[in-house]
Design brief:
The complex is a heterodimer of chains A (867) and B (511). With 867 residues, chain A is α/β, with parallel strands linked by helices. Chain A contains 32 helices and 18 strands. In chain A, strand 1 (385-390), helix 20 (395-405) and strand 2 (408-413) form a beta-alpha-beta unit. Chain B is an all-alpha fold and 511 residues long. Classes of the chains: A alpha/beta (867), B mainly alpha (511).
């Protein structure tokens, strides 16, 4: 009796442990939500505790994925002068200084420099057996130099022994179960037993799965009922030492990080305690155990330390011009120092130096254009209209051109305008969290109509979708599906021909008809507070909350005085057809959606008389004539479209008219600036504006716009700093005036929210460029939409969660996005920066470990590097 | 040349355009030709389908032009193949931009469509084999165009093997017929006079060879793998494959119809394609990957097309092949729109719902009976009537028994009426067009009709029962089997497309 109790107790402890281990292991992957709300995610956000270069080494060792720009990219950058070789030299010297190795300075510099440039290769390659002999003599040093290797899964070990099929089969089955389990209504017949959970459903199905042979099914017949027990058992049977369990699970998670990330996302967004990731690992390891059974025990891999030493000796021979015999003349410490240098100066380190030189070169360029041209601070003319844009890099050229077009002033702030809301449009079934993914919504704002209006609108919506739905229903019936091509074929052909040969007109006509039929009534927003039952979010804001969020938004964007008669809050939205990644071009600060809704909410809040009265009490006086309106910047076609215009005062009306006059010209200029950047064929004589429209409305367009490609820096400071310069749509701009931020709260908020969003965007573009197969989403031409949540490549693959190849590449062999880590520049005195570090150790960690770069411009205009 | 132009202007013009397209396609191979030439190429390849369309309307009777034969059927097929080629290439202009093999795609797509259309114009068996073989070969080249991607090479090898098999069967059958009848010209070899020389077993063997040859490109069981694994090709190539290659069965069997009269071969074809309909539909229902759903649907549709052939309804089969080609190519090209966020629609309840549904059932029965009475294809009419009636019922209920409001429902019914009218117009036009050239003097084959009705109705009943019993063990077992049928082979998929990095660095300078 007592023994069983204690056994039970022990097994409880083990279960608790395994949950924690899975939790800890999950930091190597990142949660990814459905592609229908593609918000930027940094794949390495969980790894910021280690330096960038260490993470790079680790990912390379575990998955053979390179996360530094490769030689081709560097060469291309070099060729167009984007990398200043002097910087490379300086970076190398700094690095060598840090190493403090006992090698003559010119020797180590020559060795490294030759390797970096791949120049001065020694012509006489030593013979292989000479190298072997020399390496043998140095072997005793290997334990002191080489750090312990990384853990590989059993199936990976088999793969490195040349037995690919186990890992292949394991991945194949995991992809199958994941796509069937996670399906959101794309398949008509759902996976049986799905509601019982991932592991339990799998356990019931796998025993009947004809894709597995009987032997394997027999192996799997004894898997425990609960996922955690199964995981424990598999780990035990695979003989994984206690200390390696976490890394073992990490290695498994990193083989299909997309599917695992999607499961993790579901775990984070579900109320119950069952962990899908635990289920996933239990299934994966149980299957691995069954599949590797015939190959066990695996022979220990031959020590590859020898090869490593040989490689080091060779590289000294090739790059250092050091003959094999010379080793014998060196002392023990000198030998060791040289091996250490060769070991540390691996390809990751070399590429890192190149990357840093590239980044420095860009920083020089930016520094020049910002400091040489920064205009005078005092503004004499009061603006007629003020525009608040999302800090998205695409707003930079629009702001520049708008400011030139008239007495207009512009501001940059995060596109969710600080509103932690969940939104629900009338057309949508589900609500959307319209804020950065790292924050939680606190309020709900819906579009609303009177009951009869809503009913009629719903009916029109339903009728509009009725033809499509009939098509679906007929498709899903065995008999009628056979006739469906004959019934719908002529109509689809018409649609096809129109979309192929007159894409713009066809799309325009179709969209106009749809809007006409829908004729959406003017909706109201549920801004007023209403308590909801059942633990849901409250709908709307209380009076105090309205004041709070209006004030916060205005302070964040730095618009607290000198209000113009017309203040335009601008969201942004992209437009493309036939594009599963459409939301990747929308606002990431709004969780991968148009930021039009948030703009509307803020404009409405700022117009409420009560709110203005309360704001005036704290010194934020908005003149009575000033009217807030909302608009959206359609990034694909360069237009600014009004989405909310209340009754205007006379002055506001005049400003509105002037803006209307200026807008078409601005759109033309912006298109003319943007279009040459995009690869094009045909349409030679079309105007830039027409070309932009074409991209938005053509179903065959693979690059509707560049999105945020080439983003590289984030400037937090006054507009006068950047106003005069063309930042080439590469810089996030957030208004900030340290003089109005005595306690540093605003800066703290900017770092916490907008900078993190921008860093994630930047890292996602970076990762999708350097490892398009692993962190990107592969080639758009061979993608297939899967489970209604994402895309796979080819016949089946990991769920690919990043940006498509075409979003970062000009062509298969020319990169467009420069993979640079985000350079954040804060215009503030040094103690402000220090204060952020003190209050936000996470941010300091990011800077110290090289996940983001930080510079500041102090009040005297001095540029300081904080890395 | 001049002479032939006056006597047969359209075929001459058509061939001039074909040659022009081919020359333009080959020009694209020269490295110096800029991608900006591609839009001009699209202009050039617009000419042949235009010529074919005009000829189709002007066509009277059959015209021989060297070894080629021009009649309504061959003009229609040429137009169909070329228009698919044109649409797909027009789509590729922007969709493929930036691809390493951008220009080569157009070369191969153009050449494939030209040889494919020429194959169906050939009256000489040797020419037909040559052109069809070239089409299959071109398709394999197209599949493996991205040679840096090991998977695409593997898939090309797999497809190559089965295509070779299919081609071999066709070649043996065709040469055998030619040898046995002493005629290379298809129309002469298949005349009543020549066929009378063949013995019964010869005809049966030849028919069986033909059956084997056509079920492979149609991806029928047990040859479904090549299509299931070829989702790795770029979307436009899939569109061409599913529109212009898989449906060759209907064309070949129509050509060889006079030979294809024995019971045995038809029975084999019927059973294989009947099973494939069930399998393909199952794949479409259980798969969560959009392109794979489309593949499942193609297998089922091709099964249905071959059933039509087995029942002797060649006009219906060709109509199906053509409309399916246009349908499926459109669905592939717009596969980026597969993500939908539908707001659920409110169903009607109570008496009004019942009345609308009852009306739908009544209408379905009337349509079925009405069609049965006027339908021209004897053997196939029963199958067709039932499916038509059922489709009408489903569409009616879907368009009326929901809360659309009065105007919405009215518009729904207008759509239904419009679709019905267009359906009738298109079908009667094709019937009329093809009626003259396609033989339809097939006797009523009642046992086969009953067999296929049995398979389809049983499958239908089974699917309805299973859909309502998702907790049953039968559902689980069937589900897993269908999933297994629809999955690619493990070694023909990879977890991450590693070739992208390889292409980027390909031949690129090292620093």
């Amino acid at each position: 009796m007592t023994t069983t109790l204690s056994e039970k107790f022990q097994s409880n402890i083990r279960q608790l442990d395994i949950k924690d281990v899975v939790e800890a292991a999950s930091h190597v992957i990142h949660p990814y939500g459905p592609i229908t709300a593609f918000a930027a995610r940094d794949p390495w956000a969980g790894m910021e505790r280690q330096p960038f270069v260490e993470a790079a080494r680790r990912i390379k060792a575990m998955n053979n994925v390179d996360i530094l720009p490769n030689d081709t990219m560097l060469q291309a950058a070099c060729n167009r002068g984007a990398i200043n070789i002097d910087h490379l030299k300086a970076q190398l010297e700094d690095w060598l200084d840090e190493q403090c190795l006992d090698i003559p300075e010119e020797v180590q510099e020559q060795f490294c420099w030759n390797q970096l440039l791949q120049e001065n290769k020694s012509l006489q390659q030593p013979l292989k057996n000479h190298i072997k002999n020399a390496a043998k003599k140095l072997k005793h040093l290997s334990s002191e130099i080489i750090e312990s290797g990384h853990v590989q899964t059993v199936s990976q070990q088999l793969q490195s022994l040349g037995l690919d099929e186990v890992l292949e089969t394991l991945n194949f089955h995991m992809i199958k179960w994941c796509k069937l389990f996670l399906d959101e209504g794309q398949a008509v017949w759902a996976m049986p037993h799905r509601e019982e959970g991932f592991y339990k459903a799998w356990r019931k199905l796998v025993l009947l799965d004809p894709a597995l042979n009987r032997g394997i099914r027999k192996e799997l017949a004894h898997t425990p009922i609960e996922a955690d027990e199964a995981l424990n058992q598999a780990l035990h049977d695979l003989n994984i030492p206690q200390a390696q369990i976490q890394t073992y699970l990490e290695a498994h998670l990193l083989t299909l990080p997309g599917w695992a990330g999607m499961l993790l996302w579901h775990d984070e967004h579900s109320a119950d305690n069952d962990s899908l990731l635990m289920d996933y690992l239990a299934i994966r390891l149980s299957m691995e155990l069954a599949l590797v059974q015939p190959y066990l025990p695996i022979q220990e891999q031959a020590e590859d330390d020898d090869e490593l030493i040989e490689a080091m000796v060779t590289s000294w021979a090739v790059w250092g011009g050091m003959t094999v015999n010379e080793w014998a003349h060196l002392s023990f410490t000198e030998q060791k120092a040289r091996l250490v240098l060769a070991y540390r100066f691996d390809s990751v380190q070399q590429h890192l130096l190149w990357l840093e030189a590239w980044e420095k070169t860009y920083e020089d360029h930016l520094k020049k254009s910002v400091t040489s041209k920064s205009g005078s601070e005092n503004q004499t003319q009061i603006a007629l209209a003020q525009f608040a844009f999302c800090l998205d890099v695409r707003s930079e050229p629009l702001r520049r051109l708008l400011e030139k077009a008239g007495p207009f002033e512009t501001f940059g702030t995060a596109g969710f305008f600080g509103l932690p809301i969940e939104t629900c449009k009338l057309e949508h079934h589900h609500s959307h969290s319209a804020l950065p993914v790292m924050l939680q919504p606190q309020f709900k704002v819906n579009e609303s109509l009177t009951e009869t209006e809503l009913k009629e609108y719903d009916q029109r919506l339903s009728a509009q979708g009725s033809a499509g739905l009939t098509f679906e229903t007929m498709k899903h019936n065995l008999l009628s599906s056979l006739l469906l091509p004959e019934i719908s074929g002529p109509w689809l052909t018409l649609q096809n021909l129109a979309s192929s040969f007159i894409p713009r007109s066809a799309t325009n006509v179709f969209q106009k008809l749809r809007e006409k039929w829908r004729s959406k009534p003017n909706t109201r927003l549920t801004l007023d507070h209403k308590e909801t039952d059942g633990g849901e979010l409250p709908v709307g804001f209380t009076e105090a909350e309205k004041v709070h969020y209006a004030r916060q938004a205005l302070e964040m964007m730095g618009l607290t005085e000198n209000f113009a008669p017309l203040v335009v809050i601008c969201g942004h939205e992209s437009e493309s057809l036939n594009n599963p990644h459409a939301t990747a071009l929308d606002c990431s600060a709004c969780g991968g959606a148009s930021s039009e809704f948030n703009a509307r909410v803020l404009a409405a809040l700022c117009n409420i008389p009560n709110v203005r009265q309360e704001l005036a009490k704290v010194g934020l006086v908005i003149p009575e004539d000033t009217v807030f309106v909302a608009a959206k910047h359609c990034t694909t076609i360069d237009e600014l479209e009004w989405v909310f215009v209340p009754e205007l005062s006379d002055q506001a009306e005049a400003a509105y008219q002037q803006v209307q006059v200026a807008l078409p010209k601005v759109a033309e200029e912006l298109a003319a600036e943007r279009m040459p950047e995009l690869p094009n064929v045909g349409l030679k004589w079309a105007s830039p504006k027409a070309k932009a429209l074409h991209r938005a409305k053509d179903w065959s367009e693979i690059r509707p716009e560049w999105g945020l490609a080439r983003n590289a820096a984030f400037i937090i400071g006054g507009r006068e700093l950047t106003k005069a310069s063309n930042l080439e749509s590469r810089v996030f701009l957030h208004n900030y005036n340290w003089r109005n931020d005595r306690f540093g709260d605003i800066l703290m908020n900017i770092i916490k929210g907008p900078v993190t969003v921008a860093q994630w965007i930047n890292m996602q573009y970076y990762a999708s460029t350097v490892a398009p197969h692993y962190y990107g989403s592969g080639n758009k031409m061979t993608q297939t939409v899967t489970s209604g949540i994402g895309v796979m490549q080819g016949n089946a693959s990991d769920l690919l969660t990043g940006l498509p190849w075409q979003s970062v590449m000009q062509s298969d062999q020319t990169i467009y996005h420069d993979p640079l880590r985000l350079l954040t520049i804060i215009q503030a005195p040094d103690d402000y920066i220090q204060r952020i570090f003190d209050h936000n150790p996470d941010f300091q960690q990011k800077v110290d470990n090289g996940w983001i770069r930080l510079s500041s411009i102090d009040p005297d205009g001095n540029w300081k590097d904080w890395a | 040349m001049l002479h032939s132009f006056y006597s047969t202007p359209m075929p001459t013009l058509f061939f001039i355009f074909l040659v022009l397209s081919a020359v333009s396609a080959i020009c694209l191979l020269y490295p110096k030709v800029s991608p900006n030439y591609v839009p001009i190429h699209i202009g050039i390849i617009t000419l042949p389908p235009l010529a074919a369309l005009i000829a189709l309307f002007m066509n009277h009777g059959s015209v021989s032009f060297g070894p080629f034969r021009f009649n309504a059927l061959s003009w229609l097929l040429a137009f169909f193949v070329l228009i698919i080629g044109l649409i797909v290439q027009r789509f590729s202009v922007r969709y493929m931009l930036g691809d390493l093999y951008y220009k080569k795609y157009f070369t191969l797509l153009t050449l494939i469509t030209i040889t494919d259309s020429a194959a169906w114009l050939s009256d000489d068996v040797r020419l037909l084999l040559l052109f069809w073989g070239a089409t299959l070969f071109g398709l394999i080249l197209l599949i493996r165009l991205k040679k840096e991607w090991q998977i695409s090479k593997n898939v090309a090898a797999l497809s190559g093997q089965v295509f070779a098999l299919s081609f071999l069967f066709l070649m043996v059958a065709a040469i055998w017929i030619a040898q046995a009848t002493g005629e290379w010209q298809l129309s002469l070899a298949l005349s009543d006079h020549s066929l009378a020389q063949l013995s019964r077993w010869e005809k049966t063997c030849m028919s069986l060879l033909l059956v084997l040859s056509v079920i492979i490109p149609a991806a029928q069981w047990p040859f479904q793998h090549w299509l299931l694994n070829s989702s790795i090709v770029p979307t436009p190539v899939s569109a061409v494959m599913h529109a212009g290659i898989v449906n060759v069965g209907s064309i070949l069997l129509t050509f060889f119809a006079p030979l294809f009269v024995g019971e045995a071969a038809r029975m084999v074809l019927l059973i294989v394609s009947g099973f494939s309909v069930l399998m393909g539909t199952g794949i479409m229902l259980v798969q969560a990957d959009y392109k794979r759903q489309l593949v499942g649907s193609t297998i089922a549709q091709m099964g249905f097309m071959l059933i039509q052939c087995a029942l002797g309804a060649y006009v219906a089969a060709l109509t199906h092949a053509i409309l399916h080609g246009l349908f499926k190519s459109t669905l592939f090209l717009q596969s980026g729109m597969a993500l939908h966020q539908h707001k659920p629609i409110n169903k009607l309840t109570g008496v009004s719902a019942f009345l609308w549904k009852a009306a739908g059932v009544g209408l379905g029965i009337i349509v079925a009976i009405g069609y049965w009475l006027i339908s021209p294809d004897q053997g196939y009419q029963g199958v067709s009537a039932i499916i038509l009636g059922l489709s009408m019922t489903i569409a009616w209920i879907q368009l009326t028994a929901y809360d659309y409001g009065r105007i919405g429902r009215f518009i729904g019914l207008v759509i239904l009426a419009g679709v019905t009218v267009v359906f009738i117009i298109v079908h009667s036009a094709l019937n009329q067009l093809l009626g003259e050239t396609v033989q339809a003097n097939i006797p009523l084959v009642s046992p086969l009709t009953i067999l296929i009705l049995f398979i389809l109705l049983l499958g239908s009943a089974l699917s309805v029962w299973l859909a309502h019993h998702p907790d049953s063990k039968a559902y689980t077992i069937l589900y897993l089997w269908v999933v297994r049928f629809g999955e690619p082979k493990a070694h023909l998929s990879e977890s991450h497309p590693k070739h992208l990095i390889k292409i980027l660095s390909k031949g690129g300078p090292l620093r």
